[in-house]
Amino acid sequence: MEFHITTTKAAPLDLVVIDELVRAVDPAALLDLDGHTLRVATSLDARQLTTLIGDAGYLPDDAQVMQLPSICCGGCSG
Fold first, then answer.
1. How does pLDDT run across 32-55, given as a tens digit for each residue?
2. Which residues touch 52 (CB under 8 Å, ≥6 apart)?
């Protein structure tokens, strides 16, 4: 699943810490920060992801988390 999480300047993200926490649970996860949007591709669901981001010191509310529709073609058997 892919998620876009809108961030604010009031609560800066430590992308390295978030990456380590998420990839400890989902080693295939991909994360990047584009301006004020944290983009995450992961097998985790929204609740699991926001819990891990909260463990890194930034707890987004539900309005900040947007799950994108799947674009998986099934070609990699994933």
1. 988 889 999 999 999 999 999 999
2. 18, 21, 22, 25, 44
Is residue 11's pLDDT more than 70?
A: no
CATH number at 2-68: 3.30.70.100
The rounded distance, in Å, linking the Cα atoms of 40 and 24 is: 14
Q: What are phi and psi of 62, to 5 degrees?
A: -60, -35
Provide the β-strand partners of residue 34: 37
Residue with tokens 């987004």: 60
pTM for the predicted model, two decimal places: 0.82
Q: Domain segments of the chain: what residues?
A: 2-68
Which two three-digit tokens encode residue 65?
Answer: 């988390």
